[in-house]
Amino acid sequence: MNDAVHAKIDTMVTSNDVVLFMKGTPLFPQCGFSSKAVAILEHLGVGFESVDVLQDMDVRQGIKEFSDWPTIPQLYVKGEFIGGSDIMMEMYEAGELGELMAEKKVAPAAS
Amino acid sequence: MPMASDDIKAMILEAFPDAIVEIQDLAGDGDHYAAKVVTPAFAGMNRVKQHQAVYAALKGKMGGELHALQLTTGIPE
Asked: Coiled-coil region(s) at which residues (chain A) (predicted)?
């Protein structure tokens, strides 16, 4: 992978507590899976940074290699790759995603 | 390019011969699938690793031909 893209993604996931790589924006998701991921984070009430991969082809390709994960969305918490929308949904339904956010001391969304 | 559900199932079974694989065509259009893969081979792997193992079995088709595959993985009880 291109080192510059790698470094850029690394900075994104380490300088923000919760980062969602998605297609579109939280207000206008461009894919059902991204929309689902946003809904889960909003339900949990955590603040998150979103990255629209459709705006940056290097990041769109680079994130797949960075995480060794073929699809978007992808969730990172405190620099750790958590999973895609299916894993988020599974963890959310089991109450594990909320616990993870609490354990990692992630701040709630500013209201 | 859509994939036939039998092809998806065959690829997963090739990698995990003892898996129980259920494929569901969500929209009836041959393009939106849900797959459930349960195998003892997932023991000791977290969810991310289990999903990555299935993606590896699909040999790069995930994220390309297969955009819409909802994946659930597990270990038999």
From this structure: none
Q: What is the pLDDT of residues B5-33, one digit of tens each?
A: 999 999 999 999 999 999 999 888 878 89
Beta-carbon separation of A82 and B51 below 8 A: no
Task: Please check whether residue A73 is in contact with residue A22, taking contact to mean a CB–CB distance below 8 angstroms.
Answer: yes
Cite the DSSP H helix spans in A19-70: 32-44, 57-67
Are residues B51 and A71, on separate chains, in Cβ contact within 8 Å?
Answer: no
Nearest to A86 among B63, B64, B72 (CB): B72
Q: What is the pLDDT of residues A40-82, one digit of tens each?
A: 999 999 999 999 999 999 999 999 999 999 999 999 999 999 9
Q: DSSP letter at B25?
A: E
